[in-house]
Amino acid sequence: MPRNRKLDIVLKDIVIESIAAEGKSIAHARLPEDDPDSPGRVLFVEFAVPGDVVDVRITRKKKSFLEGRIVELKKASADRLEPFCTHFGICGGCRWQPLPYDIQLKAKQRQVYEQLTRIGHLQVPEFNPIIGSDKTVFYRNKLEFSASDRRWLLPDEDPEGLGEEQKCALGFHVGKFFDKILDISHCSLQPSPSNEIRLFIKRYAVENGLSFYNIRENRGLLRNIFIRTAVGGQTMLIVCFGEDSPAIVPMLESIRSEFPAITSLYYVVNTKKNDSITDQECILFSGDEAIYEEMEGLRFRIGPKSFYQTNTGQALKLYRAAREFADLSGNEVVYDLYTGTGTIAQFVSGRASKVIGIEYVAEAIEDARTNAAVNGIDNCEFFAGDMKDILTDSFIQEHGRPDVMIVDPPRAGMHPDVVATILKAAPRRIVYVSCNPASQARDIAMLSEKYKITAVQPVDMFPHTQHVENICKLEL
């Protein structure tokens, strides 16, 4: 990240004290203009470990806090680990690699507590201990890589000495820059053949003179790739192109020839200005329409647009915890909002009278219906559409008042109209599953006029990142 040219402040011998939200660490520091008797301003530092002694260059200066980056590690914390990834510190992910995993888990549990109590101003019971991940590397079943015709250059690289093919990238976004892509040589998040596929596609594009995407000008052929892997060994690849071209078919043919283990090969021609493919046609080039995962004997179909938890092993633990919080006896009507491919709905169906699943993505609902039929489940109904438009008073009158609601919204949380409808429906119990405890806290604050939190279960789905999944049990 380029430093703020208006600032030229380096603070010496800063002792890192603790972990903060957003993947940063906390220290305290005084500037020359600060009161010498004050404890100092809060200083947020990236890539630091509690116990480190560091020199920090200030990148942001505010009245109540400072932000900075390490310019020299004077003394490493006894807890500091050597990062396992060569891209650490530049790639936007896996920021907590130097932190031992037990410290990561404690920080995440504390993060959930602070967001519920400070953002939502909620009364919370004693938390269940956070559920850690058995795998801390190669745990993801889905990754997206972006292409760029102007990759992020490392500090020691001279752009004048690079050929055009050396300026291209197929990798991850850098930090908060929407248009900066770091070329990735190896990623430890997803098992084989993820790395091999990405490297082959980049090499093929370069050797055959195919253009890489330019996000600012919305032009270029190779735009994104999505790779999904299943525990059983199936692999789905979706190649996204920024324009239509006769070069697409030969490229896909080469990929299929090089990787016969790819069981589903799709492509998308996306000419719009954002990378989302939910509104695009995914064209099956070869192989099966879907890949499959299994949990407790249930089989789940995953298509190119399906939402499925990206850490398969942790998803099973998450769903079991959600089912336990639902506390079903077999007679309840359950609503599963933001159901995706119906995984949670079907996971709890054996202990419910009826389950209603609602999801925005129509293709995911088709997968959910297929999954239910394959699994011999006949007490689940699934509906596609915008949640605030589907979940209405008339819908509830038609399909039955819910005894239990399970909600698993996207990071932004629930629309206020959805919260209002839930309050009207007044289910006895709500199980709120969230990948963003901050928006979860906001939503539960709105629900708190009728509900109280009776149990909290954090689950770590994303080791080495600051992200954490959380389940809250709410009761009338």
What is this entry, summarized?
This protein has 476 residues and is an alpha/beta fold. It has helices at 101-119, 194-207, 248-258, 312-326, 343-349, 362-374, 387-390, 393-399, 416-425, 437-447, and strands spanning 10-15, 18-19, 24-29, 41-46, 53-61, 65-75, 142-148, 169-173, 181-183, 222-229, 235-241, 264-269, 283-287, 291-295, 298-302, 333-337, 354-359, 380-384, 404-407, 429-434, 452-459, 469-475.
- Widest sheet: strand order? 9-8-7-10-11-12-13
> For the CA atoms, what is the radius of gyration?
24 Å
Low-confidence stretches: none
Report mean pLDDT, rounded to a whole number: 93
Shape: globular
Oligomer: single chain
Category by helix and strand content: alpha/beta
- Secondary structure tally, helices: 10
Helix content: 10-25%
Secondary structure tally: strands: 22
* Strand residue percentage: 25-35%
Q: Measure the end-to-end span.
A: 48 Å
What is the makeup of the main sheet?
7 strands, mixed
Task: Tag the structure with descriptive keywords.
476 residues; alpha/beta; seven-stranded mixed sheet; 10 helices; 23% helix; 28% strand
Structure explained in plain terms:
Strand 8 and strand 9 form a beta hairpin. The chain is of the alpha/beta class and 476 residues long. The protein has ten helices and 22 strands. The protein is 23% helix and 28% strand. The protein has helices at 101-119, 194-207, 248-258, 312-326, 343-349, 362-374, 387-390, 393-399, 416-425, 437-447; strands spanning 10-15, 18-19, 24-29, 41-46, 53-61, 65-75, 142-148, 169-173, 181-183, 222-229, 235-241, 264-269, 283-287, 291-295, 298-302, 333-337, 354-359, 380-384, 404-407, 429-434, 452-459, 469-475. The mean pLDDT is 93. The chain starts with 9 loop residues before the first strand and ends with a strand. Helix 1 packs parallel to helix 10 (437-447) and helix 4 (312-326) packs across helix 5 (343-349).
